[in-house]
Amino acid sequence: MKVLGIESSCDETGVAVYDTALPGAAGLRAHAVYSQIALHAEYGGVVPELASRDHVRKLLPLIRQTLAEADLTTRDLDGVAYTAGPGLVGALLVGAGVARSLAWALDLPAVGVHHMEGHLLAPLMEDDPPQAPFVALLVSGGHSQLVAVDAIGRYRLLGDTLDDAAGEAFDKSAKLMGLPYPGGPQLAALAQTGTPGRFKFPRPMTDRPGLDFSFSGLKTQVLLAWRDSDQSDSTRADIARSFEDAVVDTLAIKCERALDATGSKVLVVAGGVGANTRLREKLRAMAAKRGGRVCFPRPELCTDNGAMIAFAGALRLEAGERAGPSVFVTPRWDMATLPAVETGVTHG
C-alpha cells in the first residue's frame, strides 16, 4: 500500500509517500518538509493565520515534488493520510481539506492521524524496529509525555508536563538570553561550548515519586542566572549547558522510573527534542546499563514531518480504518481515545 502523508499541524508543511510493501527504511519512498521559520522569525513565534496561509501556498507544490522524487503519480497511490489534530485549527484544516479533496477525486480511502501518534510511531519506520509493549517519551515544543504502549493504538499516559514542555522551556530560556528564533536549537548548539556545572540548576520533580514533569521553574533559574551575571558570551554558553544538563537529567530519571514501573526494557523517544545529542547519549547509556534498548527516529524525522503521518496512516488504513467524507479536525485530542489497530502486520 502506497500512502501519501500530509502534515500541517503548525509551522511546517510536510509531505511523504510510504510504501508498506518495502522493508525497513526503504518503505519511505520520498519525503519533503518546508519550514516557516523565516516567516515567523520577526514575530518571535508562530502566527497562526500566517501559518495557515503559507500551508495553502506550499502544500500542492510540495505534493508534486514528493511524488516526482518517489517516481510516482497520483494514480499509483492507494490511500491518503493527514494530520487531523492536535494543532492549530486553521493549519490543520488546510492539510485536511487538501487530503480529503485528493482522496475524493482519486476515489481513495483517507484517514486522519493523531499528530503525537505519528511522532510515537516514527521509530518503527527504521530497520529493526521496536515491538510493543514499550515505553515512549514524547518530547517536543508542545509535549513532554511518558506513554505506555501496549500495542499500536493502545496507549496509557504515565506522566505529563504540568506546565511548559521541555522544548518550550528550551525556546523560552533561549529568548530570555537574547538568542534568535527559534531559540531551542540555538541554545542546544551553544551548550556544546559551555562549561558543565558552573551554574547549579535543579532537576525538577525528581525528589518526589511520580512521572510528571515541570520545566517552568528552570526558566526562572535561567532568568535569574542571566540577570545576575556579566552577560558575556561565555556565561551565556555556561548557562545554556547547565540548563540543558538539567533538562536531560530530568528526562532520563523519569524515563528510568517509567521503565521500572512498567517492567519494560525498551524505550522509544520521539519529538523534536529527541534530536538533542546530549539526550540521546544519556538515554543510550541508561538503557545499556539496564540491559535494555532505546530507539530514536533518524534526526530529520524528529521534528514535524509527513513521513510519520504517512506511516501511521498506512497502519490504520491497512487495519480498515477510514475517515468520513467531511473535512474534520480536532485541535485538542487525547491520544488515549484512539482506537486500537487490530492488525498482525508489522512494518519497519
Automatic annotation (TrEMBL):
One Pfam family recorded for the sequence: TsaD
PROSITE patterns: GLYCOPROTEASE
Cofactor annotation remark: Binds 1 Fe(2+) ion per subunit.
Domain Gcp-like: 28-311
Cell division among keywords: no
Binding site for Fe cation: H115, H119, D304
Reactions the enzyme catalyzes: L-threonylcarbamoyladenylate + adenosine(37) in tRNA = N(6)-L-threonylcarbamoyladenosine(37) in tRNA + AMP + H(+)
Protein name: tRNA N6-adenosine threonylcarbamoyltransferase
Biological source species: Lysobacter brunescens
Phylogenetic classification of the source organism: Bacteria, Pseudomonadati, Pseudomonadota, Gammaproteobacteria, Lysobacterales
